Recover the amino acids of this structure.
């Protein structure tokens, strides 16, 4: 019995197989056994074609990861678009004017200030009622 290896150039892998050795053909004078290389290689190719050859790779994981990245980029682009559109002044006005405990003149002054400073207006829209009151109090102290 002999072990042979054959390099597969396409897959950069080695095929291994065990071949048949002709021990009976030796008359004792020559101790080197005779190996049928053609038969060994044929068996190696036949057995390795179903075992050693890798199956076609599935790129589902890569496609899934690319899809997730594309969706994340889309969400970022949407957020940037919304941020760059400007502040919805009607909503800022409604929220400022709905704050209780202040005169209309004070609230309109606070609204005018927020209308001139978009980032502060965005932050004001996000705050809860208690934090909006604190912001207006701090604005009046200035």
């Amino acid at each position: 019995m002999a072990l042979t290896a054959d390099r597969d150039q396409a897959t950069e892998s080695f095929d291994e197989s065990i071949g048949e050795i002709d021990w009976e053909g030796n008359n004792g004078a020559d101790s080197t056994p005779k190996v049928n290389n053609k038969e060994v290689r044929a068996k190696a190719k036949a057995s390795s074609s179903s075992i050693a050859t890798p199956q076609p790779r599935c790129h589902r994981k890569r496609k899934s990861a690319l899809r997730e990245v594309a969706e994340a980029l889309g969400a970022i682009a949407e957020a940037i678009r919304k941020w760059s559109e400007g502040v919805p002044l009607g909503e800022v006005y409604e929220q400022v004017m709905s704050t209780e405990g202040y005169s209309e003149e004070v609230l309109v002054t606070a609204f005018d200030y927020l209308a001139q400073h978009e980032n502060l207006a965005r932050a004001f829209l996000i705050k809860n009622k208690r934090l909006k009151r604190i912001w207006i109090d701090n604005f009046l102290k200035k």
